[in-house]
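Table S5 (text form). Sequence records supplied for joint modeling of the two-component complex.
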Amino acid sequence: MTSGLFGFYTAQRSLMLNQAAINVINTNVSNINTEGYSRQRLEISQESVVATSASNPLIAAQSGLGAVIDSISRNRDAYIDNSYRTAYSNYSYSNELADNVGLIEDITNGLSNSGLGVALDEFYTAAQQLSQNPTDTVTRTNFVQRTINVATEFNYISNQLTDLKTNLVGDISDTNTLDVSKISLGCDDLNNKLAVIAELNSTISFSTTQGSTPNSLLDNRDKLLDQISEYIPVTVSAGPNNTVNISLGGTDLVTGSTQVGSFKYELKDTSLAGNWTTNPPVVKIQDPNGRDVLNDVSSKITSGKLGAILDVTGSDINKPSINNMFDSLNLLANEFATQINSIQMYNEPDMEDDGITPTGTTTQAMCINKTATTPTLKEATHKIFLNQDTEATSDDTKITAANIRVNNAIISDPTEVAAARINYTTATGATAANIQGTGDGSNALLIAQFENKALSNLNNTTTEKYLNSVTSNFGVQVRDVQDKLDSNDTILQQISLKRESASGVNLDEEYTDLIKFQRSYEASARIFNVVNEIMQKIVTLGNS
Amino acid sequence: MSYMRITTKLLNDNVINSLFTNRSKLNDLQEQLSTGKKVSKPSDDPNASINILSAKLSLDQVERYTTNIENALSELDIADESILSTVDVVQRAKELAVQASNATNGATEFSAIKSEIDQLIEQVKDAANTKFGSKYIFGGVITEIPPYSEDADGNITYNGTPSTSNYQRKTEISENITVDTNVTGDSIFGQYVEGDTTKQTGLIGTLKNLSNDLGSSPPDYDGIKASLDDLDSDLTTLLNAQANMGGTMSRLEMTKTKMENDEITYTKFRSEAEDIDLAKTISDISYQETALQVSLKVGAKAIQSSIFDYM
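The corresponding structure-token record, covering 855 residues in total, follows.
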């Protein structure tokens, strides 16, 4: 037979248990909008003791002892968490990539009414006008202005792309920019988060060995793991005492309470000067002493924000990247400039039909001989395009989109543009100077007709068609990235939904539970009263 | 029975998601309506943008060639007028030559006829020095110097590019097709250099000789009579040049018409790829508006309903 007083304890435990349950509901309701919060549940079980007397059926059945709190658990599904993180990595990759390729597309937009396409169009129009009016000063000046315009457009696009690249991965010639690049800041943020997780692991492990379940710490750690998967695709595995281990492609980052690997973005070989091809900056994993564990982890960062940054600044020809766009533009700028220059500087002895025997005449591109008293021509001596402002040591084979310039000699004197192409007899020792025919626009016509010339270096297409194909091919790639973003977004939403469904708080449910435990509390109080009354009865039994 | 646990946050997120989706679709459509274009970036519709870009390229070229043709036509028109006025000169010269070959003329009459012929020579010279804008049109590629100059001895020489040379001013009228837009003066007007019969050619040569024949004392009747034949052949030269020019002009006109047709074709092609179908977009917008209203209404209902309303 149990003690009569025991009823008090059972009722008291019940009151406390219901209060605790209401407290858990309180916590759930207050955290309804907290990101990363998992709904908590009070795990209750029957109180039991080891049977001491088989003769007492009440004790033998282990009944009448009430209920106890086992634990306060989290509604969390590790499998969904893992799927969520993979999906989040993929989504973040697509999102970051879509943002950046969208910027590149804006910079190189061929459909708008400004930009390189329009500049080329106006250039060819100006060349046609020049071919018809080679002696007109206004036409000449206009032609030179349109030429400058083409160079400026190339420079502008190139600068914009360079700025974008510098923001993402820094400028190779200035190591300070590497440290403030988006990828380096991402590495710093990752390191902070990994350090916090290591600390959390330590606290969680301690609490767990003390027998408690540190739900809020676990929630915090899960939130951090989500945030890490925004940057890189990590593998999370469970360790002892509720700790987690984090690794990237087989390389450990956090083991228990120590952060064994941290990210560092710097030159592949810091003892040498930076160079995009031979010594580029890379993402490294270093141990706590700053020694390289892995010199280049680019190949392991296949998704997440960092993966997107590496791809958009990389050189994979199958992926849309700044470098690919640069290559196309440089090719176009170089081909355009050298070809126009070769028309401007044309000077070839004429040959008989056999192609070997000189005819004694020379065909030469000519510009206006300004110093002569009568309108005459002279040989063209200045290239139109250079890789710098002045001719001194210029080499037009090195022209790129970034350095293409119009020769200052041409800008300051538009009569230097060779609009005429004349053949003259060389046999009699005649020179090219003082030849009549300023109205000849045949060289300018050749510049205008260059528009329709298919160039082998540009995939056998013309300058403008090449530009169009670059723009539209990039458009196809951007579309592809956006479609992928849409599908990754849908997948992420679905998994979020599942996770929210498992771990989120539902007010209706909490309210129902609240009422349940409130009633339960009321009932326990009533039982307490009844036990109390019984006790009073027992105490006053002898007084009657 | 299995069910999905719908949490309060999930409900809110769903409502917000569907509102955002509908709003952004509506926004896209409204942007299309305000710009009139359904493609503003290549990635909006890569296939359409390839068409748009190539149509734009062709349209730019058509525009260029059309301008070229119009310029060439204007220049040829001016040249045509000059030659036409010269034809009148030849007719008048013939009348004068016939009149001069009449033996009843006295010295006064010959002098009057000679001075009119001299006037006609000036007229021919002026016509040959016609300018289009700032350039002399009958001098080949030498456009800044008057093609004909007269020295103190009365020699009228041609300074332009000779008709036998390769230099003609060319105009591109469609891809890689060029036409010569000039007629060199020496082939139609000729020239005159005293004492050098190889340089006494064409109309100017004939008129100059006629003037000399009239001026000599006594007038050279044989020369005057011979000049009638020369004038006839000069007239033929002029008419031939005019016919040639007429041929070029009609070719230009035909190419221009073709360019205009091309322009319509390419514009239509571009418009089909780029422009919105107004009726479709407007009906899409009203559909999308309805969808937005539905999601607003459903959302409001879904968020509102809670167990608190019933307790």
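Note: Residues 47 and 286 of chain B are 27 Å apart (CA to CA).
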